[in-house]
Amino acid sequence: MARIVMKFGGTSMAGMERIRNVAARVKHVVDQGNEVAVVVSAMAGETDRLVGFCKEASPLYDPAEYDVVVAAGEQVTSGLLAMTLKAMDVDARSWLGWQLPIRTVEAHAKARIESFETQALIAAMARGQVAVIPGFQGMMEDGRIATLGRGGSDTSAVAVAAAVKADRCDIYTDVDGVYTTDPRIVSRARKLDMITYEEMLELASVGSKVLQTRSVALAMKEKVRVQVLSSFDDPTQEDLPGTLIVGEEEIEGSGMENQLITGIAVDKNEAKVIVTRVPDRPGGVASIFGPLAEASINVDMIIQNDSKDREETDVTFTVPRSDLARSVDILEANKATIGFNRLITDVEVAKLSVVGVGMRSHAGVAATMFRTLADRGINIEAISTSEIKVSVLIDEDETELAVRVLHTAYGLDAEPAA
Ligand code: ADP
Ligand code: ASP
Ligand code: MG
To answer: What residues contact 41, with CB distance under 8 A and at least 6 apart?
Structure first.
């Protein structure tokens, strides 16, 4: 017997037929004698629909009421799944975020989980009752409902698994595992049997939305065994071939350490800003990024062009597209202090990142990337690196071609089907 947390995403919960399929899978795991908690997302598209209503109600909506509205999607699916399980003679009940409760920090729409009451939950599971928990939601200190940011049900699932000390946290989604790149964009993407927490964390943070970044960080910290699987396979099939997220030591010896690059991710949510002719003196760059930081704007890639022949420099950087207008306002308001000439912005850019722990011990990853892109005439507008990642900013129109050629260049293409 094991204690298992199963999480089902939006596509898996979209409509009663799929919910019945989910229930059959849960029943199968329960029938094997396991203690089970299930975390569910809202039906696919539902959260977007609810967000749309909020925007329509008031462009400057109250974030506390936004949370009340958008958390509703998961309330519906948790109730429906509990009902469906009972109709199949599986004992089950729903536990809303405020009923457990799952306590979060005071931050509407992007709350972090702070603590988790597990007593009632563990007692229910021990009695053989399936606990169905709506993902994405928790309760703040003041008793109001909070949501965890888009894609937050993954984090709910890992938090439940950590809190009840589950043997496994199985994340069922609409693909059968983590691939070398988004399989919906590159048909030759290859499924990975295993990936390290660190690589998954980097891939998620640079655009692979298969798991919410925070869920991976939490799993790594709490050593939760996470597996990504398809919810569309036969519900009674044993040993589904998903992707296991593991510590680096588990990968050693598996042969995978010879793989230089594990995955490629794309992020189209960034915008580029060029601040031209900034006086090249100590404090020049601080005068740009200080006010942006004060406004909680996350600056990602940064390049400062050297200017040996002038006392001025151009500074290029990226910010989230959703923060571009605010960034421009802030820089204009600080124009006298910064002393720049012009602001140039571009939203038609994409950040492409290659990730792999193999980079630690092998040189030449960045060089291969630059050469491969150059051979196709793709211009690199900015670069940033970390220990296990190289990212480049390119023209958005060239994204698919760039991902495909890099996928081939790093030897990631799947064997063609026989
Ligand atoms: P869910 O609703 O189950 O949470 P998501 O839509 O959030 O599902 O995440 C699954 C999607 O992630 C897939 O449909 C796929 O298009 C996308 N994806 C992006 N990068 C990858 C990757 N490297 N491997 C697998 N899926 C990926
Ligand atoms: N329903 C929420 C969203 O669409 C949370 C989730 O599905 O993970 O963002
Ligand atoms: Mg998701």
So the answer is: 7, 8, 9, 10, 12, 13, 47, 73, 74, 77, 135, 136, 153
* Encoded amino acid at 387, one letter: E
With beta carbons less than 8 A apart as the criterion, state whether 137 and 102 touch: yes
User: pTM for this structure?
Assistant: 0.92
Peptide bond into 320 cis (omega under 30): no
Helix (H, G, I), strand (E, B) or coil at 208: coil
User: Any alpha helices (H) in 334-375, and if so which ranges?
Assistant: 335-338, 365-375
- What would the pLDDT profile of 171-213 be if each residue is shown by its tens digit? 999 999 999 999 998 999 999 999 999 999 999 999 999 999 9
* CA–centroid distance, residue 231 to ligand 1 (Å): 12
- The finding on whether 8 has its CB within 6 A of some atom of ligand 2 is no
Report which ligand 1 atom has the smallest distance to the Cα of 172.
Answer: 3
Instruction: Check if 151 has its Cβ closer than 6 Å to any atom of ligand 2.
Output: yes
Backbone angles phi, psi at 92, to 5 degrees: -155, 155
> What is the 137 CA–ligand 3 centroid distance (Å)?
14
Provide the edge-to-edge strand list for the sheet that holds 389-395: 263-267, 349-355, 389-395, 382-386
pLDDT in tens, 309-338: 678 899 999 999 999 999 999 999 999 999
Cβ of 135 below 6 Å from ligand 1: no
345 CA from centroid of ligand 2 (Å): 31
**Residue 287 corresponds to which tokens in the numbers above?**
């005068």
Nearest atom in ligand 1 to the alpha carbon of residue 11 is: 2
> Which of 183-186's residues contact partners 24+ apart within 8 Å by CB, and which partners?
185/266, 185/400, 185/403, 186/400, 186/403, 186/404, 186/407
C-alpha–C-alpha distance, residues 107 and 116, integer Å: 17
- Give the phi and the psi of residue 170 in degrees, each rounded to 5: -95, 120
